[in-house]
Automatic annotation (TrEMBL):
Gene that encodes it: norG
PROSITE patterns assigned: HTH_GNTR
Gene Ontology molecular function, alphabetical: DNA binding; DNA-binding transcription factor activity; pyridoxal phosphate binding
Pfam family, one: Aminotran_1_2
Membership in a protein family: In the C-terminal section; belongs to the class-I pyridoxal-phosphate-dependent aminotransferase family.
Record-linked InterPro entries: Aminotransferase_I/II_large (IPR004839), HTH_trans_reg/aminotransferase (IPR051446), PyrdxlP-dep_Trfase (IPR015424), PyrdxlP-dep_Trfase_major (IPR015421), PyrdxlP-dep_Trfase_small (IPR015422), Tscrpt_reg_HTH_GntR (IPR000524), WH-like_DNA-bd_sf (IPR036388), WH_DNA-bd_sf (IPR036390)
Alphabetized UniProt keyword annotations: DNA-binding, Pyridoxal phosphate, Transcription, Transcription regulation
Protein name listed in UniProt: HTH-type transcriptional regulator NorG
Length: 463
């Protein structure tokens, strides 16, 4: 014989049915009225109301009575999405919380963009006011980009480059995604200098490509290891940053530039050149882009935001032959065109008579900040060895003592109010050791001293 539910549970279930027909805020009958209505004891009524209160269905207002609670919105069931999406590794897993702008009050020794005092903000504002008056900038723009901006990029490169070789994109990340999709099918290997820009690693993985690391040293990627990687993997694409590689700051040496191109030619492979640091060299004359040596083999990506402002999301791809046709087709599918307003502003800023003065001021200040950062590292953290002395860009690549956990160090730094990035996120494969990437882009001399002093305190706390 089935056992009966306790009386208060039976009453609670009956009251639930009643509640469904009442509006939130409606007053329930008194205990005395419920006793009379359901023929139960006051104890049973009180127990039932207590159960409904715990379930969030009613609220008791002392001295006033019991009322129907506000109904919570039903929680969305996303189970179907898990089935539809299937299993997939998140390319940003484990690093997403670190790859965010520094919070207010935090010293941003991780920021890759120069602070506002070093941007071309005044020039951009003035250009925007001028350009926005032209009605045509609010119209549909050519998918390949405006002729005016493509001509600026082609003229900067020279070496027979024409505007027909240039495709404009809404920033460097979009350019990377387009180029990788154009050159490599999902499941294909892609060679990457190691360490390298984590945004490129993430894009490759998100597209189903398999990044394969090729070690580098202070003179750039090692050609003999690149040759070996091509032979073992069968890859047909090599991604690199020959000028002030992020994070190491390495510049590909003159001897290796030719060697890398010979290795790629022998493998029948493309070289993808990310020239993000053009304009950020502050010691010596920077070498010309690799694409000027072998335009048909090198697919060139030229961002502009590091020397203008982060919000000027415009970049260029330079390619030739069937690769260029495929890139153009993909760009049409992705977003039709880049805002003509942004493109015209970029043209104004890049061709402004004040452009050279702005770059000189930016480079001089970055040199001062690099020297200041090195000085304070020697003062507070002599155990951290810079991998090399950067001659441009905004990064110091610091080797941690063996056995140290770079992620733990970066988390401790954040607790101390300093943003730095752990080295492991810059490796396409296994890290070669524990590193930190420190940036002097967004912090002046005083902030660098304070930030490095706090970092030292965080590392002492580790011990």
């Amino acid at each position: 014989m089935a056992s009966r539910s306790p009386a208060h549970q039976t009453l609670a279930q009956q009251l639930k049915e009643t509640l469904r027909g009442l509006e939130p805020g409606s007053r329930l009958p008194t205990v005395r009225e419920l006793v009379a209505q359901y023929g139960v004891s006051p104890v049973t009524v009180n127990k039932a109301l207590s159960q409904l209160t715990q379930q969030g269905l009613v609220v008791v207002r002392p001295g006033s009575g019991t009322y129907v609670a506000e109904r919570k919105a039903a929680q969305e069931d996303y189970g179907w999405q898990e089935i539809a999406l299937g299993q997939r590794l998140d390319p940003t897993a484990g690093i997403r919380e670190l790859m965010v702008p520094a919070k207010a009050g935090m010293i941003p020794l991780g920021e890759a963009y120069p602070d506002r005092s070093l941007t071309a903000l005044k020039e951009i504002q003035a250009a925007t006011r001028r350009v926005a008056r032209r009605l045509e900038v609010w119209d549909w723009a050519p998918a390949e980009g405006l002729e005016s901006l493509r001509s600026v990029v082609a003229g900067e490169l020279g070496a027979g480059t024409t505007s027909r070789d240039v495709q404009i994109t809404p920033g460097a990340q979009a350019a990377l995604s387009t180029v990788f999709r154009a050159l490599a099918a999902p499941g294909s290997p892609i060679l990457m200098e190691s360490p390298t820009y984590p945004g490129a690693i993430g894009v490759a993985r998100s597209l189903g490509l398999s990044p394969i690391p090729v070690p580098m040293d202070a003179h750039g990627v090692r050609p003999e290891l690149l040759q070996e990687a091509f032979a073992q993997s069968g890859a047909r694409v090599f991604y690199c940053q020959p000028l002030h590689s992020n994070p190491s700051g390495a510049v590909l040496s003159p001897e290796r530039r030719r060697a890398v191109l010979r290795v790629a030619e022998a493998a029948g492979a493309f070289v993808v050149e990310n020239d993000y640091a053009r304009g950020l060299s502050f010691e010596g004359d920077p070498p010309a882009p690799l694409t000027t040596l072998e335009p048909s083999r090198v697919v060139y990506i030229r961002p502009f935001s590091k020397t203008t402002a982060p919000g000027l999301r415009v970049a260029a791809i330079v390619a030739r032959g069937p690769a260029a046709s495929r890139i153009r087709s993909l760009r049409v599918l992705d977003d039709h065109f880049v805002s003509a307003l942004l493109q015209e502003v970029a043209v104004d800023v890049l061709t402004s008579p004040s452009r050279r003065t702005h770059l000189q001021r930016l480079q001089n200040e970055l040199r001062r900040r690099r020297d200041s950062a090195l000085e304070h590292l020697r003062e507070f953290l002599p155990q951290l060895r810079p991998w090399s002395l950067p001659t441009g860009s905004v990064f110091l690549w610091l080797r941690l003592p063996e056995g140290w956990d770079d992620v733990e160090v970066s988390r401790r730094a954040m607790l101390a109010g300093v943003q730095v990035f752990p080295g492991r996120i810059f490796f396409p494969g296994e890290p070669s050791g524990p590193f930190l990437r420190l940036s002097y882009a967004a912090v002046g001399a005083e902030g660098l001293r304070e930030g490095i002093a706090r970092l030292a305190e965080a590392l002492e706390a580790r011990a």
